[in-house]
Specification:
elongated
Length: 97
Amino acid sequence: MSTNIEPLTRTYVVPLRRAFEAPKYRRTKVAIRIIREFTSRHMKATEVKIDEDVNELLWERGIGNPPRRIKLEMDRNDEGVVSVRLAPEAKPEAESS
């Protein structure tokens, strides 16, 4: 197998429903682990780095109530390190009067 890893950028909607099978006092921690596992599986990552904004969004409603799904953009560099950040939101068009 080749050890040459190509840089890659993809956008995914990561389902976090499995986090709700965990006890309420552990759900957001489990959601972070789910994101790391999902990223490793889909992006063939050697290391996963989660952006601060993603972390803040997950912890926004506390440890017991993370979001059910989250839209993320993942960038893999040529060393296999994947950085995970929030996907850019679609901006609404300006209304013309």
